[in-house]
Amino acid sequence: MPLPREDVEATTPKFLRDKYAIVGVGETTYTRGSDKSTRALASIAVRNAMVDAGLKPSEIDGMLSYQFNDSVFSPFVAGDFGIRLNFYMDVFGGGSSTEALIGIAIGVIEAGMCKTVVIFRSMNGFSQVRIGGTGVRSAVPVSGDMLHSRAYGWQSAGQSFAPSFMRHMHDFGTTAEQVAHVRVAHSHHASNNPKAYYKKRITVEDVVGSRMICKPLHLLDCCVETDNANAIIVTTAERAKDLKQPLVQIRGVVGRCSKPRVDMHYQTGPISTVAGRYAREILWPNAGVGPDDVDLTGSYDAFTFTTMLQLEDYGFCKKGDGGHYVSDGTIMLGGKRPNNTSGGHLCEGYTHGIAMVIENVRQLRHDADDSCPIGPDGRRQHTYDYREGGCRQVKNAEVSANLGWAMPGTGSAMVMWRG
Question: Which domains does the chain have, with CATH numbers?
Fold first, then answer.
């Protein structure tokens, strides 16, 4: 349930609220077969973010990344720009990384270890190291956590998450048709995003009629695999006021909050409850707002069901009402609270969540990069006509929430607003 505003304000640590901002965002194209190394992709995205912010390489002194599979280490990318870093860190952690890394960036700047931090994720997620699939033919020995998970057929992400999805359907009567509306909504948004990999608008019938991958997941319930890199830049709000873009301030962050257990999370609480149930107790008090104050969301959509479960457990609707929430028009452009207005992982490209932050930054700048004409001031003149090929800017967007997902037992989140 949404937290009462008076309760939010009464418990809020205010000393970091609005003190930091995202000042630059950038990405490469979303493609399959980039013909570039992840180092080259990262450099393109970082450069685009610096240009967006109006910063020179000499003004960057910190760098963070989600480094795993075929990605590249921060100091290599920094070296390509002639940047000497005062602080860097490369971490592993799945789709909960972006918001957690933003929290780390705030912490290291607050501690005086650096002043301006670039965060990036680079991956050839289709042409080099594919995240999907079971890996049953892999030569990698079965060890560690796989000794437990593979025995139950939990090898891929879809297989691992499916019990949470199925239990929600069993307990609350949630239907595949209801949750298919997530893909439908995101496909509508992507149709207005020139850089989205999948731009075609689809129907509920298309989703539930696509082949079954792992019950209850149909092919179109699953995200796209792409090659791409993305970058964002974090610095103080005070410094941001002198930079190129409208101010987008960070209200509050939760980094990699978990259920009491992560591996067998179903042993400590309902299997259909995800980490957002705990993360919201940090997020909303830190941000000083509640779910009802949020204008748009970026809820991680590795699968349609991950979006639904997070929106529910962060309090945007009552537990068990997630199926109705995502299917009643709320998350569509023109609805009460649009979700993943770029098309997200289901349609734009798979980025481990960082592109969802980029999208919400642009939305809060009132400058979503759609097909609307660019005015004399260099910014798009949005029509708010959400028909195919048109606008995707949320009207009067002031507050956004990003909900990151690594697995049912781990999540991160962030609230931003237009300064």
Answer: 15-129+226-240 (3.40.47.10)
